[in-house]
Amino acid sequence: MLTRILTPDNEAIITAAKLLKAGQIAALPTETVYGLAADAKNEAAVKAIFEAKGRPQDNPLIVHIADISQLYEIAAEIPDKALTLAEKFWPGPLTMIFKKKSVIPDVTSGGLDTVAVRMPSHPIMQEIIRRGNLFIAAPSANISGRPSCTNALDVFEDFNGKIPLIIDGGECNIGLESTVLSLVTDTPTLFRPGFVTVEQLEETVGKIKISEAVTSPIKQGERVQSPGMKYRHYSPNAKVVLVKGEHSKVCQFIKDKEDSGVFALMFEGEKPIDNCLFYGKREDSAEQAKNLFKRLREVDRLGAKTVYVECPSTLGVGLATFNRLIRAAAFEIVNV
Ligand code: AMP
Ligand code: MG
Fold first, then answer.
1. Within 6 Å (CB) of ligand 1, which residues are found?
2. CB 18 within 8 A of CB 71
3. Is residue 266 situated within a structural domain?
């Protein structure tokens, strides 16, 4: 299959909407990461997403909408807190989980009786939803387990020959997947941290429960409420190790490694070492979030065998970056 990359003009938007309407899949830009899109109501199209990504069938997809009226068509119960959150954070990087209506097929929800919904702020994604009068199911556009893609070339690297179309919307502004919050539980439960922070959510609707899986590995046999949390995730081919401690000690720890193919991801503006890439200033969590996946893909292209990553703060957006990194590192953290 030939994979076309189109710049996002009017014609490309119409092409993408038509193609999705016809049951095909396409990679589209959003403000978080690129999404691999299909018509959420079309079982065969949704199955094609799982196949192209190699995604486990029980890991549900997020359904993207462009207007609040669409929420009422797919969510069976919409608590007041959800509307308050939608008012404040939609369109934007917040996904909310609701009891689902039967128009959303079980393949889309991974067999669950709930549906995850997000209203993206990216104008291209919004326009394609509107033009096609669609509900767009879209997981991150990456081969399952790999770092998510934040630009069209990264998507091309994973899906060349496997999908018909990539719309090139440039670099994603946020660079990490959306915050995922369940509104099905009495106290809203955070399943995945993102750019919308715990602090912001609590300011808006009060107490939030943070699922243990956000910062800890799933124990064997444990029942998970959000299937995505149980899989190895976000990993480059290189082995990732998180290193936590004072900058000079982190540097010394990495310099002492004598293996070849050792790379480091460090904070910008501090004393660098050999084979070191930056992923943002220490105090700038948003910049770290934006650069992380891009850098993890870069170290692979540079032939890294191991990449040591200077551990980010877990405050604010930092919690999201930390959550992705501990999964990429299979929970290997070294304290120096
Ligand atoms: P991705 O599609 O790669 O952005 O991942 C979507 C995340 O949302 C995964 O971790 C899913 O397991 C989670 N998710 C989607 N739908 C639901 C749902 N109905 N209940 C719980 N988690 C969900
Ligand atoms: Mg993903």
1. 59-62, 97, 109, 112, 114-116, 139-140, 177, 180, 191-192, 225-229
2. no
3. yes
Q: If you take atom 2 of ligand 1, which residue's CA is the nearest one?
A: 139
143 and 247 share one domain: no
Which residues lie at CB < 5 A from ion ligand 2? Answer: 140
The backbone region for 220, taken as left when phi is positive above 0, alpha when psi lies in -120 to 50, beta otherwise, is beta
CA 47 to CA 56: how far, in whole Å? 11
Cα(55) to centroid of ligand 2, in Å?
Answer: 9
- Same-domain pairing of 151 and 277: no
Radius of gyration of the chain (CA): 20
pLDDT tens digit sequence for 167-196:
999 999 999 999 999 999 989 999 999 999
Instruction: Say which ligand is closest to the CA of 293.
Output: 2
- Residue-number span of the structural domain to which 155 is assigned: 4-214
Q: What does the alpha-carbon distance between residue 175 and residue 212 come to, in Å, rounded to a whole number? A: 24
What would the pLDDT profile of 37-53 be if each residue is shown by its tens digit?
999 999 999 999 999 99
pLDDT digits (tens, 9 = 90+) for 190-226: 999 999 999 999 999 999 999 988 888 888 777 788 8
Nearest CA to ligand 1 atom 20: 226
